[in-house]
Design a protein that fits this description.
single chain, 304 residues, alpha+beta, seven-stranded antiparallel β-sheet
Length: 304
């Protein structure tokens, strides 16, 4: 095949990082992103951008482009023939933890991998998606989020939204809790279908649609009053987020296995979190409604 347009992919990711940061700064009234550039020991590097203010308690938008002499186990598990091959990996990862418990946490990631990039038959694939993790969920927000996800998919293949929505539900699942992490969205990986241009275009559509899906949700909820009860519940639910990222998240595992920058990899963790022994929300309370109703895989586009 012809050589892969690595520089074009990299420029897209860097532009996406900037556009997402611009969109988040429109929501935040007291702070702007700090920028931290870093280098990877084996080549490449990245730019981490972090924000903390009156609306976003902690947010990170990270671009990374790392290289390695040996594909880590997290990336070669499904392709044992590629174990030990050199690789390049690049992408943008976003995690936004708002201050107000009525505003959901959101996560987005789009990425590109190529194994044996200088070989005769390099193996490449894209991955990505986004998901929403509310505390006091609003059905309007959840439906709008899934409508945006579906719109990002439908121009490429109308089977993609139901397929990648289901994959998201299955992937962001805490096995040890028998519980979903949030209300889902999209998740896809190892994606190289049809042609490079098709796969690259689809990944861009998902990446480009994230901030437009999330901004209206923050705007609707960020002024809602809250107190200590809501903040405590938020901190307890954030504990589930930490558990998932450290135990199951493939991006976290890959980053650590590939010798990535730990500070950037763990930027996804919330600033304040609590674990209360055997915490159980009161039956019928708004807190119980999160797990009783929202954290159940369902067709959010067919809500009556």
């Amino acid at each position: 095949m012809k050589s892969l347009p690595i520089d074009t992919i990299k420029k897209y990711f860097q532009g996406l990082q900037q556009s997402i940061c611009d969109g988040i700064e429109q929501l935040e009234t007291t702070s702007s992103f700090e920028t931290d550039q870093w280098q990877h020991a084996n080549g490449g590097g990245g730019t981490s951008r972090v924000i903390s203010g009156s609306v976003i308690e902690k947010g990170g938008v990270n671009f990374s482009h790392v290289k390695g002499k040996e594909l880590p186990a997290a990336a070669s598990a499904k392709r044992p023939q590629m174990a030990g091959k050199p690789f390049e990996a690049m992408g943008v990862s976003v995690v936004i933890h708002p201050l107000n418990p009525y505003v959901p946490t959101s996560h987005a990631n789009v990425r590109f991998f190529v194994a044996d990039p200088q070989g005769d038959n390099p193996l490449w694939w894209f991955g990505g998606g986004y998901d929403l993790t509310p505390y006091y969920a609003d059905e309007l927000d959840v439906v709008a989020w899934h409508q945006a996800a579906k719109a990002a998919c439908d121009g490429f293949d109308k089977t993609y939204y139901p397929r990648f929505k289901q994959w998201c539900d299955e992937y962001f699942y805490l096995k040890h809790r028998d519980e979903q992490r949030g209300v889902g969205g999209l998740f896809f990986d190892d994606f190289n279908e049809r042609s490079f241009d098709h796969a690259f275009g689809f990944m861009q559509s998902v990446g480009n649609s994230y901030i437009g899906a999330y901004q209206p949700i923050v705007e609707r909820q960020k002024h809602k009053p809250f107190g200590e009860t809501e903040r405590t519940f938020q901190a307890c639910r954030r504990g589930r987020y930490v558990e998932y990222n450290l135990l199951y998240d493939r991006g976290t595992i890959f980053g650590l296995q590939s010798g990535g920058r730990t500070e950037s990899i763990l930027m996804s963790l919330p600033p304040k979190v609590e674990w209360h022994y055997n915490y159980q929300p009161q039956t019928g309370s708004p807190e119980a409604r999160l797990t009783d109703y929202f954290l159940k895989p369902r067709d959010w586009l067919d809500i009556t």
